[in-house]
Amino acid sequence: MTNPSLTLYTREQRVTQLRVIRSEWTKLRSLLSTIWCLAATAALVVGVGSAYSSLRVARPPADPSTFDSTSVSLAGVQLAQLAIGVLGVLFVTGEYATGSIRVSLAAVPGRLPMLWGKAITFGLTTAVVAVPTVLVAFLAGQSILAAENLDTGLGEPGVSRAVLGSALFLTAVGLLGLGLGALLRNTAAGVSALFGLLFAPQLLLGLLPESMSDAVYRYLPTPAGTAVSGVHQDPFTLGPWAGFGLFCLYTAIVLGLAAWQLRRRDA
After folding, report:
1. Do 98 and 161 meet the contact criterion of CB atoms below 8 Å apart?
2. How many other CB atoms are there within 10 angstroms of residue 137's CB atom?
3. What CA–CA distances, in Å, run from 149 to 56, 138, 152, 246?
4. Angstrom distance (rounded) from CA 236 to CA 213
5. Based on the number of CB atoms within 10 Å of its own CB, is 168 exposed (0-12), middle (13-18) or buried (19 or more)?
6. Statement: residue 35 has pLDDT above 60
7. Contact at 8 Å (CB) between 93 and 118?
């Protein structure tokens, strides 16, 4: 007599995008690096923002009308982008380092659904963590700045956009790291490329004439992406959503290159 339970395993199992996403979620939540990097991201956003807010209370601005209290309370986003970006790299390169990527590609022969599954899973996870973290950092910073009447509220013009934009920026940086990890397939190379894209262009720009550097600066990845996290627009950067859109374009290009390479190269 045939065991009914064995019949379930002999049936053809279709590879769907939803099943791939669920598989990638299992991988992501089982990684120890996920816990540490997400915890570091939250700690940096809240901790640095609160510390910088305390510093500005001790040294209040000469002209409060030009003071961007929202950017002060969200100053930790600048450092937290490194932690979330590195996690994006590790989410892909960890499989190449252990060789488990071969199993993943054997389970998903089409290959690209695996990459999109990783991107969707990681993007949603980052957003779920980033949104409340950024909100807590904003509220904590404003409570500190209130001691010198430097605080602002979410209802003020541009504040809600800056808070939400900071969370979206962290999500985009994480996806950029994921794309670099998939493109380079090596942790050291992926992390180095991430740091290089985020910080090296500004350093190299200092070697150019001022007139040229001012014109190019606004189109660099980090200045473009962080434009969405400020209330008062910097005259040397793009508009908030235009800048963030450009950063998303950089991220999409990297993910596109990773997809192209994934289709044409062996694991």
Report:
1. no
2. 27
3. 12, 15, 9, 35
4. 10
5. buried
6. yes
7. no
Q: What's this model's pTM, rounded to 2 decimal places? A: 0.88
pLDDT of 85 higher than 90 = yes
Distances (CA, A) of 35 to 29, 41, 116, 153, 170: 8, 10, 22, 31, 16
Provide the residue ranges of all domains of the chain, joining segments of one domain with +: 15-264
DSSP for the chain, written as a single string: ---HHHHHHHSPPP--HHHHHHHHHHHHHH-HHHHHHHHHHHHHHHHHHHHHHHHHHHS--S-GGG--HHHHHTTTHHHHHHHHHHHHHHHHHHHHHHTTHHHHHHH-TTSHHHHHHHHHHHHHHHHHHHHHHHHHHHHHHHHHHGGGT----TTSTTHHHHHHHHHHHHHHHHHHHHHHHHHH--HHHHHHHHHHHHHHHHHHHTTS-HHHHHHHHTTSHHHHHHGGG-SSPPTTS--HHHHHHHHHHHHHHHHHHHHHHHHHS--
Token pair listed for 260: 């192209």
Closest CA to 176 of 184, 130, 114: 184
pLDDT in tens, 2-28: 455 445 545 556 778 888 888 888 888
pLDDT tens digit string along 111-135?
888 999 999 999 999 999 999 999 9
pLDDT of residue 11: 56
DSSP string, 220-237: SHHHHHHGGG-SSPPTTS
